[in-house]
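Record type: ASSEMBLY
Status: queued
Input:
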Amino acid sequence: MTTRRRVCGVSAARRALVALVPVLVLACGEPQSPTQPTLNWYVFDEPSGAFEAAARRCSELSEGRFEIRLTALPSDADQQREQLVRRLAAKDADIDIIGMDVIWTAEFAEAGWVLPWRGEPARQATQNRIAATTASATYKGQLWAAPFTTNTQLLWYRTDRVKTPPATWSEMIDMAEALGRQGTIQAQGERYEGLTVFFTSLLASAGGSVLDSLGAQPSLEAAATRAALQIMRRLATSQASAPALSTAREDHARLAFEAGDSSFMLNYTYVWPSARQNAPEVAANMGWARWPAVLDGMPSRVTLGGINLGIGAWSRHPELAFQAAACIASADNQRLAAARGGLPPTMASLYDEPEVRTTFPFADVLRATLRDAVQRPQTPFYSDISLAVSRTLHPMRAIDPDKDLARLRERVARALRSEGLL
Amino acid sequence: MERLFWRAGTLIVIGYALLPVAWILSLSLKPAAELNEQRFFPRTLSLEHYRAIFTDSQFPAALWNSLGIALLATLLAVSLAMFAAYAIVRLEFAGKRWILAGALSIAMFPPIAVIGPLFNLWRTTGLFDTWAGLILPYMTFTLPLAIWTLSAFFRDIPWDLDRAARVDGASAWQALRYVIVPLAAPGVFTTAILVFIFAWNDFLFASALTSTNNARTVPAAIAFFTGSSRFELPTGSIAAASVVVTIPIIIMVLVFQRRIVTGLTAGAVKG
Amino acid sequence: MSTRSRSERRLGWLLCAPAVGAMLLVCAYPVLYALWLSLHRYDLRFPEQQTFVGLANYLSVLSSPVWWQSLINTLIITIGSVSVELVLGLALALLMHRALFGRRTLRASVLVPYGMITVVAALAWKFAFDPTTGFVNALLDLDQAWLTQRGSAFFVIIFTEIWKTTPFVALLLLAGLTLVPQELLQAARVDGAGVVQRFWRVTLPLMKPAILVALLFRTLDAFRIFDTVFVQTRGAQDTESVSLVGYNTLIVRLNLGLGSTVSVLIFLCVVLIAILFVKGFGTSFTRSGERG
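Status: finished
Output:
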């Protein structure tokens, strides 16, 4: 009796399972229309909608061959990377186009998470581009992404309080201290990527570099590094430093400058349209100049930022994705991103166009800065190096140039060996 | 006098427990412009955050994932634990104590220790970002809790009633269904509640082993909520989402509070 | 008799097999795999390179100030929260034991922190302590940016943990309270012992097993803290707990070798704590005190 019941039980269960399988398969699969594939573009949520518009425009131009769908990533670069790398390491086939921060090129290329650009798409992607932007998408002689937008820092100052902008950092800090309470310098001093950017820019301006030319060993020349560290310490301990410097990111600096009590700010170009909109009285007296130099007579070199477009290695439609990405990075869309989103274009010729020059009245300074821009260390270990640098140098007021030089050398070396907790 | 003391104490405790709930409720009802005022209660009420979280696809997907995954994990864990607990309580076999000890050690386990291997295993077998990828760890990590709780309950069941019923002429199936099941049901139900709460609550596995709406559960989704604009904190949305997932818990706790307390203390008292 | 016991044994194992199988597969196997990974250099950013490095990872972690700092942080949080929870939990248990009215509401409200998702509770308190959106600063008339300084950040984290888990401790202690025989307390009262004396001399010693169980489980839980720290500070201001270091190394940096080393070390710490407890408080355990 019990055996029969058990057998009945088993066969009933088996029948149920068999019935369920097709339901499960249908429910779990995501059908894609064979006629118009959807290409997923993973990029940060650009607030002005310029990226959306670019995606729509390119979908239309494709005449039905593909449709580009934007998937928004968090606005914080670290969080963007965190979400992307986990899925790329899991060989996610849903990722077709990636809005890559310039610092990810080496890492993604080495790990095999993006496809190399070759042939005609590569030619289109590098056409008319500012050299530094192409360099940011290149690793080991190969192109891994199409330069789309770029970004870099300028010196912003109050024209009503400062006659001529300072040429060097010491000059700027002296000027700021002389101005008293209204002479605050706004910069970024939190323990994050922005601090590494600050250090790298100062180091490059002093003639040094983080890694040697092969990218295998730390360079960190003593004189240049000490100069950079001394400036950082002087800034943080000066009367002219912002009180919340050690927790300030770009936005904090922007808001503080817009509040009116500061005279200098080191920040990206997005602060210009923001000030025009949020603090017109400040914007009316806002001037711009090249980032202050470290050494007399040697122009400053600032790190490059921006978005390049990479193609996911497990994309189901790589050829279409290359075409779509090349379209997104084309001149029309760069103009759109500049006009609507305030994102500087990577095509050199666009800086001469009247419309772009209206959006960026500082176009010439910007272009000159981009010409001399320095790359952050192009190594797959960059995220570790960045952590090593920012952890060593935070908070800036506690910097000891000699000890921290040694610490930096040691920690960067360990980061290059993928050793050490961070 | 003493009564007043105890009464005041009770009120304080109730306030203590419900303060954060009231706080997130108030945050969720504050219009965005009022979020940066430091008041506890909102001045005007607004449902905009609730509308926001339900129009975006992220939160409804997370709710569905959480519900489905937690229910399936509970079903599996309780089923497996039921058989094991029955065996432990009613049968004599070698290694019984090892199973209990092993279960106890898993309960004390730091989940972080398995995150890495599971992540690597799941990504190579394709279970990353799937329901199964979460159901398996949830089921395993709640088995100890389930086995211990069920053992404690089962120990109290007069199993001989089953034999008495059989003697009276009932078949094995009838004895099971009409005598044993009603006796065991409360324990099983209580265990299910405790397991469900664990699965519903988990954050570590959910954040490490999922990445999209396919399988991301509510705790992970809430923690990774991005604001609509670059500079805006998604406080209102987070608060609204939190309220939506806490209200059912409160209702469940209100209705089943005696069971839950019994289940939690079952081992401690009867151990 | 022996065939019966043999078939009983077989049935017993059969019924336990699925549960044991699941626990072995999803728990024991990954732990062994983690051990294996910890002996290799395996970084998912360089998926082809997987080299055996022996104990080099352990050397690296154990000589890293990040590890030791996070260990100290974790101990700060553990000791801070468990000590307060024990005292508050005891008070709460006494209240629940003696409550003459509203027992149902009391019990239900005490379970709300237990049932609430930890992430939600952490966010609720994070917002409460936020200098711009929160009410704490307004209430206490302060201008403190709680989560931007190490000391106050620890305070908020520990506060949240205490809020969330005191009810659970209270329930465990309540179970122990109910075991104290009323006759002993009556006898003590007859002998002239006051309320406090009765508590110290009679109730508390008899509750020792329950207290130790609560202490052990809460300590292990607190040591494994992750959700609250992740949500409130993400480890900034030097508040990283050991689990957070493991998560960052494994999931953010995708360094499986180093991360597995951290995981194994955390596992060893937990085992150490458990052993210390059992050795230190010995026999009180074997009698009772299994968590339900």
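Annotation: The longest helix of chain B spans residues 235-270.
Annotation: Chain B touches chain A at residues 122-123, 128-129, 171-173, 211-212, 224, 226-231 (CB under 8 Å).
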